[in-house]
Amino acid sequence: MNDVAVPASSPARTVSGIDALHHALRDYAQRWPSEAAVVDLFGGLLDEAGEADPFTRDRLGGHFTASSWLVDRSGSRVLLTHHRKLDRWLQLGGHADGDRDLARVALREAEEESGLTGLSVEAAIFDLDRHWIPKRGDVPGHWHYDVRFVVRSNGNEDYVVSEESHDLAWREIAAIAGGSGADASMQRMAGKWLLRG
């Protein structure tokens, strides 16, 4: 999902980023045919005309976010955040803020929220999840179209808790897949990871 290196204001950058995401969504639909309806929702957001840019927070009806399934070197644990605003254990991630390379966004968010360095991101989409974010302050409730990528820890795994989190913790993926109080989205990602063998 790498964009052509042209200025952000150039139409070629916008088209290449959207085309790349369309391609990645088609690839995801082939790997996970049971999720075709979800893929259609994400593709529909890309195709809407006359709305604000879906890669920015300005599109209050819903916009793209990216998150990371950040696994340790052994592949048996995932780094989760006790999210400060949502008060839940979740994967690391955040808003695209105009960046159409969502794999890059996932990697950036993983680095910023964990303090880890030397991370790498897989180009293929790992999971998709559309979820409702409740009204907060003057920001109305809206949909997050979250595109998730595998990010791998390749070095020191001693994280640093950022101000966005109450805490961080390495959790066993098998325990998440088995339930352990995790929400359906987390269980789905854990199951997908375990299927990879």
Would you give an account of this structure?
The chain has 197 residues and is an alpha+beta fold. It has a single domain, classed as Alpha-Beta Complex (Nucleoside Triphosphate Pyrophosphohydrolase). Helix content is 32%, strand content 26%. It is built from 5 helices and 7 strands, in the order H-H-E-E-E-H-E-E-E-E-H-H. Strands 1, 2, 3, 4, 5, 6 and 7 form a 7-stranded mixed sheet that branches. A hairpin with an 8-residue loop joins strand 5 and strand 6. Helix 1 runs antiparallel to helix 2. It is globular and about 45 Å long. The chain starts with 10 loop residues before the first helix and ends with a helix. The N terminus is likely disordered.
Features of the shown structure:
197 residues, alpha+beta, Nucleoside Triphosphate Pyrophosphohydrolase, seven-stranded mixed beta sheet, 5 helices, 7 strands
Helix and strand layout, with pairings?
Elements: H1 11-31, H2 36-47, E1 62-71, E2 77-83, E3 89-95, H3 102-114, E4 120-121, E5 127-133, E6 142-152, E7 165-172, H4 173-177, H5 184-195
Parallel strand pairs: 1-6
Antiparallel strand pairs: 1-3, 2-3, 2-7, 4-6, 5-6
Helix pairs in contact: 1-2
End-to-end gap: 25 Å
User: How many strands appear in the DSSP assignment?
Assistant: 7
**CATH architecture tag:** Alpha-Beta Complex
Question: In CATH terms, what is the fold-level topology?
Answer: Nucleoside Triphosphate Pyrophosphohydrolase
User: Which parts are unreliable, with pLDDT below 50 for 5 consecutive residues or more?
Assistant: 1-15
> What value does the average pLDDT take?
87
Structural class: alpha+beta
Proportion in β-strands? 25-35%
- How many strands, which pairing sense, and closed or not: the largest β-sheet? 7 strands, mixed
Instruction: Please give the domain count.
Output: 1
Radius of gyration: 16 Å
DSSP helical segment count: 5
**CATH homolog superfamily:** Nucleoside Triphosphate Pyrophosphohydrolase
SSE string, helices as H and strands as E: HHEEEHEEEEHH
Q: Please identify the top-level CATH class.
A: Alpha Beta
- The shape, in one word, is globular
Helix content: 25-40%
